[in-house]
Amino acid sequence: MKNIPDVKLGIIAVSRDCFPVALSEMRRAAIKKAYGEELYECMVTVENELDMQKAVADVKNAGCNALVVFLGNFGPETPETLIAKHFDGPCMYVAAAEGDGDLINGRGDAYCGMLNCAYNLGMRHLNAYIPSYPVGTAADIAKMITDFVPVARAVIGVKNLKIITFGPRPQDFFACNAPIKGLYELGVEVEENSELDLLVSYQAHAKDPRIDSVCEDMKKEMGEGKYYDDLLERMAQFELTLLDWAESHKGDRKFVAFADKCWPAFPETFGFEPCYVNSRLASRGIPVACEVDIYGALSEYIGACISRDAVTLLDINNSVPAALYAAKIQGKFDYQLTDTFMGFHCGNTPSCKMCAERAVKYQLIQHRLLEPAGSEPDFTRGTLEGDIAPGNITFFRLQCDSQGNLRSYIAQGEVLPVPTGSFGGIGVFAIREMGRFYRHVLLEKRYPHHGAVAFGHYGKALFDVFRFLGIEDIAYNQPRNLPYPTENPWA
């Protein structure tokens, strides 16, 4: 994936001047050895503000874009927190556990120093990543750094992201319409364009010499009999249009995501549905959110940064029929009927996340709406349809509400190996206590119907990313013994 950042980590050790500096330096070297060569070791140990300036300059010159600030002993609270102020990137703060020396000359008191560090970060209104238990041995801290990397990658990505949109939100899908104020608060840029801008650029790509190679790649990806041969050139032309637009419109940003209006005018005007092309870009780390869902695109991009894998955007769509539950789920999987639902979209899920029978097909709902009754599908073709492959998932979303407040939710679960017998890109999802989560988070907090899906369990990293970004409301699917504030205790 070329559209997500690479993390170059550095470590700076700090030392309180009334403690042996050698203690911090020895412990820093042990972390470097435990983590490996990918961690840049700054040899400037910070005891004062001048040291801080030298150390920050050193890690910047080394190309570091994320930083571990290590309290090898108590640490100097002013210069150690100024590191986060002057370093342009996410910082993690950790502290040394005792046990590698005597408790007289070898005691560092970093357990205590971490308290002053956190207090001072708060006084300066500085964001930093502090692990759940930030005190440990070299091996412990190496593991903490490993957990920090996907968080840092997502934060760096968000701060360098531009979301490019085409068209206003569709009528009756105002749920996807949210204030862009929250994007700027997060450091995300947005470029809003007309569908006509996209059409003009698409037409300019007619007969592009690269089209043939893209067509061949589509054939190879899907396999014989899994695509419409007469649509390939149009879809390849559209793919090149989006990729070229992204490259020429990045501006001062490094990464891009799209949020496009895909209906009702798009298929008739362009001659196909854009879903399959959208799925191909998502598989490369360039999400293309449906229905101009800007925060859906942002959520997908965060998921791609954390997982370094393809993501998708799905409707939290329909309940699982009781008969299907009884025949295929009950007694085979430890879920109640209300734990299950179907996640669906027209066909934007990358093919690598779908079952083998997936194929480029047509959009049934739009065929009913836009093409003559009883006719063969024409311009409503171009969706990627089939059941989503079973496996672990994380359903999540970062959203700006109508009052301009950022909030989020995270719920881990799985796609069950249960045939849906339905259309579109669809799967049977199971999330513990989904019924209560649906009522007291999704409905209660007015979330839209779209949710981002990462293919794996990434709740821990997502929670830490949202915390780092300053999101105070992070909801999750609470267990039965932990009622929601709005939940009727007698229900």
Please give a structural write-up.
With 491 residues, this protein is an alpha/beta fold. Helix content is 37%, strand content 21%. The protein is built from 16 helices and 18 strands. Strands 10-11-16-15-14-17 form a six-stranded antiparallel β-barrel. A hairpin with a 5-residue loop joins strand 14 and strand 15. Helix 8 packs across helix 9 (232-249). The mean pLDDT is 95.
Stretches where pLDDT is under 50 for at least 5 consecutive residues are: none
The helix/strand class is alpha/beta
Fraction of residues in helix = 25-40%
Shape: globular
The whole-number mean of residue pLDDT values reads: 95
Q: How widely separated are the two ends?
A: 47 Å
Strand element count:
18
Task: Report the total helices.
Answer: 16
Radius of gyration (CA) equals 25 Å
| Biggest β-sheet description | 6 strands, antiparallel, barrel
Question: How are the strands of the largest sheet arranged?
Answer: 10-11-16-15-14-17
- Estimate the strand proportion: 15-25%
Summarize the structure.
With 491 residues, the chain is an alpha/beta fold. Helices cover 37% and strands 21% of the residues. Helix 5 (138-159) packs across helix 16 (459-468) and helix 9 crosses helix 11.
Top keywords for this entry?
491 residues, alpha/beta, 6-stranded antiparallel beta barrel, 5-stranded parallel sheet, 16 helices, 37% helix, 21% strand, globular
